[in-house]
């Protein structure tokens, strides 16, 4: 009975105990100054760098984005194959819609009236021949345009090449026209509509800012200085901002990155959260370690002639693909990262004592006095030697 | 010899030293209670909020996703231009496949039998004319449809406009039909197959859950209450969930976000990791600060007539683009974030001593006794004044 | 006057105070060893695991990527419908360009010369009929191919089905050919150009590495052992690496993930930052809980015949979609995460004292001596009892 009461009491006593370390206070100009300066440095770092610059008190979220684009403009070409011809948006945007990029045709090699038939290969190493023995029926070379029939036929006055089953006539292996056929593309404009969402903070915004009205949108063109919020871009301006020349790039094509950066501090008014546009060329124009420079692809338009035979027009289209890349981070005050950073900061303040102690107890002239006061000893070795005899 | 031995011994001694702070224990109801409450608060925060709610003990990874979609349904239209006409999936999905979105045509303006030729511009400010002097040969206005020839020609009984080289006849600048032509699209269904991966944890999953069998999949339609795991969605249901009216949206088109959220706690059974579907309209339907509302694009079908002349059917297609947006985070126990959070928590416990000390040593009635016991002083100033005389 | 001076002096004194805890040093083999081992463990964890393995001293950034692809190869098919036919890149890549994926047609069901007209439905449960009463005019079943006219017509010698308005003749509901029609697709090669950017560190790189020259690129094919840096991939090799059989997969189609991982330590030379390619099948080939296995979609080529009537060739295309998925993280030294981890590590070192204290003061034989030396008491209860009498 007595014992349980004693046990109870001791638990109680324990609960109401408050442990606080015993502190030695050293009053000294040198030591005090050293201490305060080190403390100030740590606090300045925690507040200045972690909290203000890196916003360590904020929880962050990555952006979810949706992009639609609409290109406008008309180009005129005049070639021997096609005559005078107008190109509108249904002609030069391929495919007609994509999720977050668009391709503008700027140059092309056209091969009209192809049918599935037999014709001599384009002269190239491996396809030249002098007799049928040089050609292997059924052989399909990845560099070739069809399947060899095994015959050797006349390609031109001087050349004989292996005959192939292919879409004939074959596309000629030549450089794209320079200047580019759709040189007018530099004046095309594109309206980029971008809607973003930060799901963690339930925050939505669009790149058409609230103060922008319909009248302005109908005639504005993006300009970094005069119209930085206009979402309509002239193709040439985008390419120029990336330090490239549109007409040069248009010849072989390329890939442009339209980077929209949404860096949002949601502790601030939401009107401060605005998109920043930058432009960058994404493909490698360096001709040294490069293969298939620029950007091109082949596509065809299929027709049926009077005899119900399929013919096609093959187009090797060169052009600029614009990839709209939306990125950014939103931050908003949250207690967890705040306390995480404050905790880490406090732990760093603990370092101050370690550093100062070391200096005080080894370098100061009065180190012996300090040592004497700071440390007490329980010396097992001494006890041991005392006990031994 | 003696010295090295002494040095060795002192290093040894140092190694076997254990430093522990001297502690003053204050046994007091008030102080003890204060101390325990503050400690309890900090521990409750660390365990409750950081560990349980925010799962601070988990390492996280972002989702990698792949989406395929398959739309089903048939629409019937009846117009003066086209007569009675059936639209199937090959007609209304443009382009036929995309990576993680699909476009369903819901309304259209069609311009049949366009050829490259000359015709008067559509009457609009800037294109009206009274004589050839009002038209500038070679001028191409971004708002126009072609390149002006410099002639002023009769457009209708009342209007004269500048002649252009273009795809003629020109598309009429009119509003899309209302009700929309493919109103039947509301009953189309789409099967969305989504496969995700968390590379850091080597975890794969699909949105067709293991217990779902083929028979169920062949006839189910997603319903938030009765069929929340069915990956087949009726288009109208998706639009309705986003608080929009399908028929209204179908007229001018729009962009819908199909959000699939994979929030997975991989410390739990993997069967708890299931997708959550939500639907949101992504484009701006607010007519005030908007240009080109809705979602539309132009595309063409190219034909060749008997004379080998190219003609095309231009379609301005209005429709709904569904962007499948997959996001989420997986978390799994990892020792590094755990210790990071525990460490920060411990540092916060250090704060408790600071706060309690301040209260104990300044506010308590017996503060002088506590002060006396807690602090010892080495006073350089006093030493100084003692030495001076 | 005297007072303000005193106040000033006390603030000064306070400023130059340095507080350092009073320490009890226990010199003991057991206790010292325990202490050092625990410390060593914590320090080893902080340095070894957090800093070296998890690179806790680095700030990280996610990758921004742009991908272009170019497929090469020719396939030959021989069917009763189409005769001997060559398929080139313009025929089998649909759509001709996409942002970060490409689709290769490997198998197809073709329905030639469809026109908008009337024909009997394909026999299936629900479409069979014996008289006109079994068919409902205007009914459009999602499983059907058109809108019913209400008539019951002869489909074959044995079957009568409801007549529909549709693109006739209807596509037959049959399995795709096996072996696949474009079996040659296994030898197609694809050049994948990938350009990445870590915006936070302003770091760009391409998957065509600096030492790779044009000559090598023109003839190399990726091989994990002999050519790990060649960005040209044989389709069959990719599928084989994912432990799948190309010819089997080609029959019903599928989705392949081409994963490019850029794990970059930007504290190291940038030439160490290289892409790692892995391949994985993304769709579910398990036939049990699956619907519409494989990957296929329908598209059409539209023609006009002599009477200006629209006809189309419907193709149900089966094939492999390759999704290029670029992911990875770059890390670079940054003072904030470093100090965060160091701070948390220090706080963990504080734990060492807690653990050692507990052992020393409860388990050691000389615990009473230690206790006596470590703790002083201010006992309010005792004071209380002293005061009471």
Automatic annotation (TrEMBL), chains A, B, C:
Cysteines joined through disulfide linkages: 119-168, 129-152, 135-162, 220-230, 264-273
Any GO MF annotation of the entry: extracellularly ATP-gated monoatomic cation channel activity
Pfam families given in the database record: P2X_receptor (PF00864)
Subcellular location: Cell membrane; Membrane
Reactions listed under catalytic activity: Ca(2+)(in) = Ca(2+)(out); Na(+)(in) = Na(+)(out)
Matching InterPro entries: P2X2_purnocptor, P2X_extracellular_dom_sf, P2X_purnocptor, P2X_receptor, P2X_RECEPTOR_CS
PROSITE patterns: P2X_RECEPTOR
Chief location: membrane
Organism domain of life: Eukaryota
Sites carrying sugar chains: 187
Transmembrane segments: 339-361
Bilayer disposition of the protein: Multi-pass membrane protein
Residues forming coiled coils: none
Alphabetical GO biological process terms: calcium ion transmembrane transport; response to ATP
Signal peptide limits: none
Function: ATP-gated nonselective transmembrane cation channel permeable to potassium, sodium and calcium. Activation by extracellular ATP induces a variety of cellular responses, such as excitatory postsynaptic responses in sensory neurons, neuromuscular junctions (NMJ) formation, hearing, perception of taste and peristalsis. In the inner ear, regulates sound transduction and auditory neurotransmission, outer hair cell electromotility, inner ear gap junctions, and K(+) recycling. Mediates synaptic transmission between neurons and from neurons to smooth muscle.
Family as reported in the entry's similarity comment: Belongs to the P2X receptor family.
Protein name (Swiss-Prot/TrEMBL): P2X purinoceptor
Species of the source: Salmo trutta
Name of the gene encoding the protein in the UniProt record: p2rx4a
